[in-house]
Design the sequence.
């Protein structure tokens, strides 16, 4: 499972090059905060571990402007599409399962550019 986490970090690092960062908040930051969520997202864990939820809360705290919300949304979306065996229901429910709803829906099909 460590290999999956490393792959997620690498994918998000590459995605950083495709998504323009704002105020120093990058896809790498999102990846570092959410890497502990991989087991939950793939169904290996029934609920997210505390480290995952702490990361979700940190990402939520970083998303204050529209640009930051769109960036975080795109980073999460891009990473989710590259994780093998990801459960769409887990992606959608992650923030709520951590008690930290994000200011945008998390889904592999959501248009992040529609965030106001």
Sequence:
């Amino acid at each position: 499972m460590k290999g999956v986490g490393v792959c997620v970090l690498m994918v998000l690092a590459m995605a950083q090059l495709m998504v323009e960062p704002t105020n120093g908040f990058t896809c790498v930051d999102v990846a570092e905060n959410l890497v502990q969520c991989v087991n939950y997202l793939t169904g290996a864990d029934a609920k997210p571990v505390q480290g995952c939820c702490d990361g979700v809360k940190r990402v939520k705290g970083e998303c204050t402007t529209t640009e930051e919300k769109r960036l975080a949304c795109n980073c999460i979306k891009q990473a989710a599409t590259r994780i093998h065996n990801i459960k769409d229901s887990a992606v959608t429910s992650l923030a709520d399962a951590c008690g930290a709803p994000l200011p945008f829906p998390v889904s592999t099909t959501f248009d992040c550019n529609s965030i106001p």
Remarks:
- The helical segments are 2-18, 27-34, 38-41, 50-62, 66-82, 88-97.
- The radius of gyration is 13 Å.
- The CA atoms of residues 73 and 112 lie 6 Å apart.
